[in-house]
Design a protein that fits this description.
heterodimer; A: alpha+beta; 4 domains; 6-stranded mixed β-barrel; B: Rossmann fold; 2 domains; 40% helix; 26% strand; globular
Chain lengths: 795, 265
């Protein structure tokens, strides 16, 4: 009997069942695929760190003196030797390159990170892997391995020639032997990348090229937490220090895609379940009589419910199976980028996990299907046989009166239907609303990422462009003299003015890594001092801008680490001694994962401990000047420097996430359109079946096909526009709740999204509305086949 | 004067590659003001004939001329206009839109016709007048599930009359009603006919058919015969006593019955 009912139902409502199957299939594919990606990336990262023997802590130093063992290295080693929590550590030599120093055979520079670590493949502290996940143990002399992101950005192939040349006249040619996977510096968010050569080539370059040197300490701890506390209590001068969680955090962008797909799939499941409920209620209403007869002859409610659940079980099993198989390539497609960076076994799919996720969704759909048949329990045989019309009537259905309305009859009917039976149309409104949410989220995120306002969250003041001459920045850092920065800024200003560029102001930001303490809590924080800047021009969330030399502002993240609040006195180690500073303001920053302490220009910081800088920021006098032309002129004046406008700078800082989101936006729009169209087509098909008697009657009365289509379309238009409008109004909150998390990862704890009203309230809602309504009209062509005989049940 | 002419009307359905000729070269004419009943055994093609003649369904071949216009040649949109403005239709199942009140259901075709020669106020007044005439004005604001079958069918008659149709088609108008309600409905139809509305109805009920002026008997898609009973209301007018009316109707039923038996009923 089950099979017979199933066959009958599948035959009778082919397209409705097909759409339901499609929804279950898509939900399973998306949920399984995205969860799998999350799990693979999270577990894969842990495994990759283990395989790479990455230290619990990795510390990089930059030697400033010429001695064999520099002062800061000695301090680090002494600290490590004295720590009980340290079980073991390795020290490896590193050299620092700037991107100007590596050129293609045709003389052009490579597009690379600001700082490049030049290493031997035979270092003790970390292992590297080839593209095929095999360990990279040896490199032929004369060959060089590059980071995957460098190969990709520059379109380099195996066999390409590169030349390493330095200011002292040293030159050496290398042949690109391939790319390698580097757990420590492999993510896009890490602003540093690595080049690997064999030990003999490394030694030759170290000896002859005159490159800045440093050490990489890979520290393995017995108790990471204790070591972290001890480390933060020191004021070691290091170039970079990161623990495993920091490294893991730097790969957060790899999970953004999975996170977005997961949020799409959650919406899909919600829609699928609401649709399922609607379809079941619809089917039960259609089969009232049959159910009544079954009840009248004594069949148990549970037995009747089981009959109806069988169909949804079959659909759920079919959808889950199809979804499971589709999720394997789907998951691999989206994890492709991550597998290029990480050592992930099985090409990025965990069959058992995917199967279990598919089975879970299958069970959810089946149980929900069974739950939705609850209406059967409430029906008496009389109810059922009379198709729900038992003569009792407790409330009026229609809320409005045609004779009191001035609307056209079709408009009135549409409006009256929707207001009389809101629940019937809820799924369309919900889908429209969720659709707008999903589209608005990446749109708001991209607009925010591309806004000039974001600049202040990277510790930079408002400016028109950046002049970043890596060689010069390194030179300034190594000089350790603050006056040199002022001299360089004067030089830049003069050169620009001589070239006809109207400069208002030239300023820079210098970075430090300093220990800050309050009470017994201390932290090694990324810190900045602006030169030629005004403290008033920075943005603060709380408090007032620091003014005096002993006043500072800090980010919420640093303040939380040491339990500091505005008005507190904190102690910062500078020039080898602890100095008291008053915390006057709190701010948020996306630089260095939200870390930051900002000093006034009056503060006398130890420039021999400077750790980097943005380059020079230039504010133009005359805003009416064509910026593109000015930037072209600046490029001519500083041919060696990287000239970036604000947008390019932000893109560079956020690791190209806005481009990723840009491509994702189109994909989401396509998915949202498909979902909305499918939902409306499914609902409309059900309305056509359910209302064919009414349509036949209206036709008999003289309503044309167009008038009937207009009635039905206006209904959908009304519901959809309410859903879409609700989505547009609340979409920004959804963006805050979801995409805001990405900004939080980067350090911005409170973000105000940049909303483009034309896009959020106009373009995307309109596209969604028009596409869905068009699909609805096409579906309603079937109205033409409805005739008077449908009044008596149709033929 | 001819209200409706049907010439060589054929209707064929193809089911599972099998051809089923439901109507075979049907020819007849209905004069203006006539009240014609179509009778015949189940499956003889009565309803199909009614749908094809009223433009609810397209015939396979043949012509239907309504008020001098060939409606079989009209496009769907034009046909809808004819259905809206020139004919009324009453169904066996009293179909109305469930989210509207009785009055709004009645008003719907008039509002939809969008004719400029009358205002909405006039339409509303006409609907209420019709309802009053048919004795259902007290249910104007009711929901359609709050009224009896007889009241609902009378409301359907009101609805079908809203655009002053030339002809009224009725498919078993009393088929779903009890005896009392049937009589009420037939009384109203006879009144309308008396006022000049041409009526063509399909029925199984001898009592209903006996009130019509002419009977067409259809068997296997062919008009087997026709029977003139004469207008019922003119005879009724002549009769002064209720008993006379009852006797008159009994007499008409008896004649009809005899003829139907002759036809093989």
């Amino acid at each position: 009997m089950n099979i017979r009912i199933l066959k009958k139902d599948l035959r009778r409502k082919k397209s409705i069942n097909l759409i339901l199957l499609l929804f279950i299939f898509l939900s399973v594919t998306f949920v399984t695929g995205s969860l799998n990606n999350f799990s693979i990336i999270q577990n894969g990262l842990d495994e990759f760190m283990e395989k790479s023997h990455l230290g619990d802590f990795t510390i990089l130093t930059l030697d400033r003196g010429q001695e064999e063992v520099s002062e800061q290295n000695r301090e680090v080693e002494n600290f490590l030797k004295g720590q009980e929590e340290v079980s073991n550590y390795f020290v490896d030599d590193v050299r620092y390159l700037t991107k100007k120093q590596t050129k293609r055979s045709n003389g052009t520079n490579l597009e690379q990170s600001e700082t490049i670590i030049f290493n031997s493949v035979s270092i003790k502290g970390q292992k590297f892997f080839q593209e095929n996940n095999q360990e990279l143990e040896q490199i032929e002399p004369g060959s060089i391995y590059l980071a995957q992101k460098c190969m990709e950005k520059n379109g380099l192939q195996e066999g390409d020639k590169l030349t390493l040349s330095t200011d002292n006249g040293f030159q050496k040619n290398f042949t690109v032997a391939g790319s390698f996977k580097d757990v420590f510096l492999g993510s896009d968010m890490m602003g540093t990348e690595r080049m690997l050569v064999c030990q003999s080539d490394y030694e030759k370059v170290s000896r002859e090229a005159g490159l800045p040197s440093g050490k990489m300490y890979s520290v393995y701890c017995r108790d990471v937490k204790k070591f972290d506390t001890a480390y933060n209590n020191q004021s070691l001068q290091v170039f970079f220090c990161g623990d495993r969680p920091t490294v893991k955090k730097s790969y957060v962008m790899e999970t953004v895609m999975a996170a977005v797909i997961l949020s799409v799939s959650v919406c899909l499941i919600i829609i699928a379940l609401v649709m399922l409920k609607f379809t079941i209620v619809f089917t039960i209403n259609e089969d009232y009589k049959e159910i009544g007869i079954m009840k009248a002859i004594g069949m148990k409610d549970s037995a009747i419910r089981k009959l109806y659940t069988v169909k949804y079980f079959v659909l759920a099993v079919a959808g889950a199976l199809l979804g499971f198989f589709a999720s394997i390539p789907f998951s691999r497609l989206f994890i492709h980028q991550a597998t290029e960076k990480l050592v992930i076994e099985n090409g990025g799919s965990n069959m058992v996990f995917q199967f279990l996720a598919s089975a879970a969704i299958m069970l959810l759909v089946t149980f929900f299907g069974y739950y939705s048949t609850g209406k059967i329990k409430k029906m008496t045989p009389l109810d059922a046989i009379r198709r729900g019309n038992n003569g009792e009537r407790f409330h009026r259905k229609g809320m409005f009166r045609l004779h009191k309305s001035r609307k056209k009859p079709t408009t009135f009917l549409a409006f009256n239907d929707v207001t009389s039976e809101l629940r019937k149309y809820l799924v369309i409104a919900i889908t429209g609303m969720l659709g707008v949410w999903l589209v608005v989220m990446p749109v708001n995120t991209i607009n925010t990422l591309r806004s000039d306002g974001l600049l202040e969250w990277f510790g930079a003041q408002k400016c028109d462009f950046f002049v970043a001459d890596d060689g010069k920045i390194s030179e300034l850092i190594l000089s350790g003299d603050r006056q040199n920065y002022y001299d360089y800024m004067d030089e830049v200003k003069k050169l620009l003015e001589a070239g006809g560029v109207p400069v208002e102001q030239v300023y820079t930001e210098v970075f430090f890594r300093l220990k800050v303490r309050k009470g017994d809590k201390s932290f090694q924080s990324f810190s900045l001092q602006g030169l030629n800047t005004s403290m008033e021009d920075y943005f603060y969330e709380e408090g007032t801008a620091p003014v005096y030399e002993n006043e500072i502002a800090m980010t919420y993240i640093v303040a939380e680490k040491i339990d500091a609040a505005v008005g507190d006195t904190v102690y910062i180690t500078n020039h080898g001694r602890e100095e008291p500073y008053v915390l006057t303001a709190l701010y948020q920053s996306m630089n260095n994962m939200g870390q930051g302490i900002r000093f006034t220009e009056l503060a006398d910081l130890d420039y021999s401990a400077a750790a980097g800088g943005f380059g020079v920021e230039v504010l133009l006098k005359d805003k009416s000047e064509e910026r593109l032309e000015v930037i072209d002129e600046v490029k001519r004046i500083f041919p060696e420097a990287k000239i970036q406008n604000v947008q390019e700078f932000i893109d560079h800082m956020v690791g190209g996430i806005s481009q990723q989101l840009d491509s994702l936006k189109l994909m989401i729009l396509a998915i949202v359109l498909t979902i909305n169209i499918l939902v409306v087509v499914l609902m409309q098909k059900m309305f056509l079946i359910r209302e064919q008697a009414e349509m036949g009657m209206l036709k008999a009365m003289g309503f044309s096909n167009q008038a009937i289509i207009a009635w039905q379309t206006k209904r959908i238009m009304l519901v959809l526009s309410v859903g879409i409008a609700a989505g547009a109004i609340t979409g920004n909150y959804f963006s805050q709740a979801t995409s805001g998390k990405v900004f939080q990862f980067m350090g911005a704890t409170r973000i105000d999204f940049v909303v483009n009203p034309l896009e959020v309230y106009g373009f995307y809602p309109l596209v969604l509305f028009l596409a869905t309504v068009t699909a609805c009209i096409i579906t309603m062509k079937r109205v033409r086949t409805v005739n008077i005989q449908f009044i008596y049940g149709g033929k | 004067m001819e209200a409706l002419r049907v010439q060589d009307l054929c209707k064929t359905y193809i089911t599972n590659k099998r051809q089923n000729n439901v109507l075979k070269n049907v020819n007849f004419t209905i004069e203006q003001g006539e009240m014609t009943a179509v009778m015949g055994p189940s499956g003889s093609g009565k309803s199909t004939l009614l749908y094809s003649v009223s433009g609810m369904d397209r015939p396979t071949a043949g012509q239907v001329i309504l008020g001098g216009r060939k409606i079989t040649d009209l496009k769907e949109k034009e046909l809808a206009q004819v259905r809206l403005n020139e004919m009324g239709f009453i169904f066996q199942q009293m179909y109305m839109l469930k989210n509207l009140t009785v009055l709004d259901n009645i008003l719907l075709p008039a509002y939809q016709s969008g004719r400029k020669d009358r205002s909405r106020k006039e339409i509303d007044a006409y609907a209420l007048a019709l309802m009053h005439r048919l004795g259902i004005s007290e249910i104007a604001g009711n929901d359609i599930t709050e009224v009896s079958g007889g009241q609902l069918q009378r409301a359907c008659i009101c609805r079908s009359m809203m655009n002053h149709p030339q002809i009224l088609f009725a498919d078993e108008p009393t088929g779903a009603l009890n005896r009392g309600a049937s009589e009420e409905v037939m009384k109203e139809l006879m009144k309308l006919n008396q006022e000049g509305t041409t009526i063509m109805l399909v029925t199984h009920d001898m009592k209903v058919a006996a009130k019509c002026s002419r009977i067409l008997y259809i068997v296997d898609g062919n008009i087997r015969g026709e029977f003139e009973l004469g207008t019922c209301y003119s005879q009724k007018l002549e009769a002064q006593e209720a008993a006379d009316i009852t006797n008159l109707l009994r007499e008409r039923e008896r004649k009809l019955n005899a003829w139907l038996i002759e036809m093989g009923w």
